[in-house]
Records
---
Amino acid sequence: MKRSIWIIITVFALMAGLAIGVFGVPKMVQDRVFVPELKVIGDIRNVINISDLDIFEDGPMLNIEGDTIKASPLRQLIDSGEPFSQQNSVIIVGHDGSVAELDYDDLAKSYLAFNSEHGWHSINLNHPVSTKIKRIKEIAVISKVTDIDYEYGLSIITTGENLLNITPGQAYGRMTEYLNPEGNVSMEKDGSQHKAFIYSKKKVIRIEELLDYDIEENIVLMGRDGNIVYTGNIGSVELDDNHFNYNDGLSGDREIIDLAGIMMDPPGASIMNVYNDCIYYTGLDEKVMVIILDGFGNHQYEYAYANNYIDFMRDASSITTASSVIKPVTNSGLAAMFTGKPPAENGVHNHDNRQPLVPTIFASIIHDNKKALYVEGDIQILKTEIDPVLNIDRNNDGYTDDDIFECSMENIDSGFDLMVVHFHSIDDMGHDFGDTAAETMDRVKILDSYVEELVLAWDGYVIVTADHGMHPTPDGGSHGEFCYEDMFVPYIVFSPGQ
Ligand SMILES: [Zn+2]
Ligand SMILES: [Zn+2]
């Protein structure tokens, strides 16, 4: 009897001890120890913010030198933030300045742990003990893939070159930390005012340092929110967790959150000029026709020019280059042209948006008691104040452009002050065969002849431009990225009687 009582007592004691080990101690640690915030940042879609010990709830127990501790597998933690790519380095940064870089593929025995002595710390059972970073400040995921997903990084381009394409993680080690002034604070205590100045620590880099050479004076910055900033003041790029921002350090009023790209020495024109030019010409009681060659980028124009595919358009009275908008896709390109406003103001950022939030050129023309006609292909792309005249492929030749052309010619003498004609086949061929493929250029040649007939028949100004360009891909072409092939288009104007 005595023996079995002792066994029961022993079992109870063991269970109580186990219960304290599993539930009791970490709970006590959580109650009396300050848990500092720990972030996982860099090349991940979702920044991970850890501010309590909940991440250990499902984690394994590790037995290290006789101590049983709770740990969270590092790779699992990083995966929960959805890295941009599968090839990464993981940088663990301590408050004391010590840093360990581990390969993402070699994290099988790497853990994050917490205790009151070392705060957040790393345990890498497959790595030397020097990789144990105590009091971790942050963990950065760095993509080793250079051909980045344009949904995330920062690109710097000129009208003819893609200069840089960098992810937040890749820029991480190059940023300088500095104190950004936030403002004065003061409090009255014991009859006197106690003042202080508040700063926040930011990671910044000057654009020249990203490029390793001096940059042109004029730049255009574009955000994924559709904001566009023209500036001569270079300012600096800030790394903010998993994206870049732009801050004009001097005035503070120019700012872009989630900076997608920078254009160096940009052209003076934007596709938004379509709106203003239409207002200007019709204000002079001149007629204007806008011909949109979908997906005809500036470099394709130059290729067609050099290879004699555009014998008519090459002789226009004014030929310049214009910048498109983010994203360089049809909906946002058309909305920028029709409203004269950047996506941040007109509300059309991509294929998902169809309703401009501000009036389009058609509303202005109607308001001035003038007549407008909008000739489209077989689907309505944006909701505009006047409905487009749609054209199906009536003769089944695989294209609607010949039908759009015929419809436009039939209406060219019907007294319209503004005609907008949107052709599609250069974009279709560009997707299927590539931006400068023979098939695409053959369509450019056909479109050049359509433009010629329309210009000769129209008694007014004609603007020929594109919504966006096209870049080559392994199996054809695509667009929608901040690269020079997608972001620059020709802007051609024919004067009346030309
Ligand atoms: Zn398009
Ligand atoms: Zn397209």
---
Amino acid sequence: MADATWLAQRLYRDEFLTVIEQSGLRSRRRPGSFAPAGVLMHHTGYRSSNADPFPGLSTVINGRPDLSGPLCHLLVGYNGKVRVIAAGRANHANTARASGPMPAGDGNTMYIGIEVDYAPQLGQAPSSAQVNAAMQAAAAVVTRLGRGKRYVRAHAETSTTGKWDPGGAFPAPGAFRDKVGWWINNYWRP
Ligand SMILES: [Zn+2]
């Protein structure tokens, strides 16, 4: 067990991010191993807006009838703010295929999960603030793990069950990694 109790503090170091700590995050986890080496990007499938920037909040904390929460570590709202949901193992990745430098295996052991709260299956695009916050959060976390942009993967790249997230107008995985790489090179590199 190696809970990522550093998540909120790491994100606070990014002056461009607005961070909200969800009550109870340090003890929120699934049972089982957690040794994250990479970051996995998702969309929630909930239609968000400026008036309702985090429609997926309750679900990512509490889970669904078929899947116990927490369902991610970070939730990125339509307003570009980032909620820290859980420090320990979360149900977001299932069994992972090998992807880039990341091996195949238990995705919930290997990845920190970032859910972007929008609904591409309903035709919704993420906001630009949301995409920017997602890339900064991914850069902050993957560098804290001691790794570079190639360790940021999309769920569509690791899923063994046909997941396609983050979809719609979200940057394609390679383009997203390049944006994360910019933040690593220009902001996080010591
Ligand atoms: Zn996903």
